[in-house]
Amino acid sequence: MGLKGFVEGGVASIVAGCSTHPLDLIKVRMQLQGEPAVQSLRPALAFHTAASHHVHLPPPRVGPVSVGLRIIQQDGAAALFSGVSATVLRQTLYSTTRMGLYDILKTKWTDPNTNNMPLMRKITAGLIAGGVGAAVGNPADVAMVRMQADGRLPRLSVAITRAWWTQLLR
Asked: How many CB atoms within 10 Å of residue 55?
């Protein structure tokens, strides 16, 4: 594949990730429907008291079009791309690692006499490259989901979190 193919594949996956980012953001927001924006901490095995027996019905779920329109109405169209920097980082780490490692394994495991790679070696190379790529890209994936969910938080909470990270990284 060489360096040119490696870079082209990485750029293509970054463009694809950025193109589908608004749909991914809507998916994350739909998954978080009904969850409180700020979680209160409570023990996993909380005992129910007489006051906690009331029935709380979650609000009705809305579809992807409604979620997308609500995001645009509340925060503007640019909000559909909140967290896109983490998407770029994720695609850079995951896709380039996966493609580069697969190319290295393919070169190493191909029979030089027949210039052929058996199917089981191809499958093994794909599993190894995909697993290592997923492990490398996972922190950026977590950051991406957290950044996408930030739109649900009160603005003051987001500002405090960003200030905390800025101070931490100094």
From this structure: 4
Helical packing angle, 84-109 and 119-149, nearest 10°: 170
Whole-prediction pTM? 0.69
With tokens 């870079």, the residue in question is: 7
Is residue 58 assigned to a domain? Answer: no
**CATH classification of the domain holding 101:** 1.50.40.10
In sequence order, what DSSP letters do the residues of 115-134 get, joined into one string?
A: TB--HHHHHHHHHHHHHHHH
Q: What are the tokens at 10?
A: 């990485």
pLDDT the model gives residue 32 = 85
The answer to the question of residue 130 being in a domain is: yes
Indicate whether 38 belongs to any domain: no
97 three-state secondary structure: helix
Q: Are 89 and 143 a contacting pair, CB within 8 Å?
A: yes
State percent of the chain over pLDDT 70: 72
For residue range 98-152, list pLDDT tens digits in order: 988 998 999 999 999 999 999 999 999 999 999 999 999 998 888 888 888 876 5
Query: Containing domain of residue 123, as a range?
Result: 2-33+63-169
- Residue at 72 is within a domain: yes
First to last CA, the chain: 39
Count: domains in the chain: 1
Q: Using alpha carbons only, give the angle 5, 11, 15 rounded to the nearest 5 degrees.
A: 140
